[in-house]
Design brief:
CATH architecture of the largest domain: Alpha-Beta Complex
Radius of gyration: 21 Å
Bound molecules: guanosine-5'-diphosphate-alpha-D-mannose, magnesium ion
Number of helices: 7
Largest sheet: 7 strands, mixed
CATH superfamily of the largest domain: Spore Coat Polysaccharide Biosynthesis Protein SpsA, Chain A
CATH class of the largest domain: Alpha Beta
Structural class: alpha/beta
Shape: elongated
Number of domains: 2
Helix content: 10-25%
Distance between the termini: 45 Å
Amino acid sequence: MAVTSAILLVGGMGTRMQPLTLSTPKPMLELLGRPITEHQIMKAKEAGIEEIVLATSYMSEVFTPHFGDGSQLGIRISYAVEEVALGTGGAIRNAADSLRSDGGVIIFNGDILSAHSLKEQIALHESKSADVSLHLTRVEDARPFGVVDIDGDFRISSFMEKMENPPTNLINAGCYIFNRSAIEKIPHGEVVSVERQTFPELLSEGARVFGYIDTSYWIDIGNPNALLAATKELLNGEPYDLGERATISPTARITNGSYIGADSTIGADAVLDNCIVGRGASVGAGAKLTTCHIAPGAKVPEGFIAGGNFFGFTELSGENPYI
Ligand code: GDD
Ligand code: MG
């Protein structure tokens, strides 16, 4: 049966993304003016996915007004809200109840930007008659990730989540295909980690778990610097991109993969190097900013010089119910 359904795991707290996530859940942080989640939805749609369930928990109310029923993006979107976060495995089990199709399901971590081919991953899953398949990539330092052992036929023999001395640098890249029978093995309504419980259990039962190894661009948007790096990657060598109605002084200089949000203003002689400027923000004349995040609506004073800073995010704290 064709794989036409997907679940997006978007319920985490995004603690390592603070202060950006004080008022926005991590998957709703924007890359080139569109939430990370929207980039993933469009990738799924291009691979033939027809329905997506967003598995939400932390700040669930932010997703629905943006994505609605998905008709604007041309894909069916529904929501599975966890009152208490169920962990990655519990979230998958819970969200699967909302799917219409009975076929295999693509599951995405909600903080990944990846250029791998979902169609090829589906083809591998099918050709191996897999119960579960995982997108795998190689990294230099595997310690913050799940690592796998794999044999010459791409069958995974072990899965270990975040360890001090990883035996390989081949990691779980956070995009899975699960057959429905494998999802149904996850207990319902319980807190379950897919990485720490489900994968090791499936392997110990002899389930057919395969890896789709890919070397194209992949990034875990796990900290603010990764958001800047991903912006640069998406711009593909262009110095910057602009949202609608952004106004830039002709003497400003914007370089190195920056994004200037809608309705924002960049003053005369300002220099921005790999920065993200939120909607409706302003950067004063002569400011010089390198790898900075400017919150929506924030105002960077004239002549301000900074590197690696955040502007305006903590000022929200007084009215932010999530702190
Ligand atoms: N709905 C829901 N409920 N979603 C959750 C929950 C939950 O209780 N907990 C986490 N998530 C979502 C997060 O929002 C994120 O999109 C995804 O699940 C993974 O959680 P992270 O907190 O980002 O995990 P990680 O980055 O430490 O590690 C994961 O990703 C790595 C690749 O980036 C693991 O899957 C690793 O094995 C993997 O290598
Ligand atoms: Mg993550």
